[in-house]
Amino acid sequence: MGGSTLPGKGSAAKRHRQSRERRMRNRIRRSSILTAKKNFLKAVRDNDTAEAESRYQTVVKLIDTAAGKGVYHQNTAARKKSRLNKVLKQLKQGSEA
Questions:
Q1: Which of 29, 54, 59, 88 has the fewest other C-beta atoms within 10 Å?
Q2: Number of domains in the chain
Q3: Which spans does this entry mark as compositional bias, Basic residues (predicted)?
């Protein structure tokens, strides 16, 4: 089956429009976070500590904003930031040794 059905009432049509707009907005936010994360991990692979720290701040800000907007649950955002911070710490310890 899987065909799309049209809403039967005007209020359902409005909810459908709203959810479609929110879905697109959330998708854009998630995409920008993934791009920033990819740039951060590239800086880590290149062993560029200063660049990695800068990229880390950018990713964390985007994740916090997304969590505040309801794209991510607070715990999910915290987990993502923690994992990125762990990578950054490993880079710093590796560059000190």
A1: 54
A2: 1
A3: 12-29
The rounded distance, in Å, linking the Cα atoms of 81 and 77 is: 6
Q: Whole domain around residue 42: which residue ranges?
A: 38-97
**Per-residue pLDDT tens digits for 21-31:** 999 999 999 99
Chain segment 35-91, per-residue pLDDT in tens: 999 999 999 999 999 999 999 999 999 999 999 999 999 999 999 999 999 999 999
Give me 28's structure tokens.
């854009």
CA atoms of 44 and 17, how far apart (whole Å): 41
Whole-model pTM?
A: 0.85
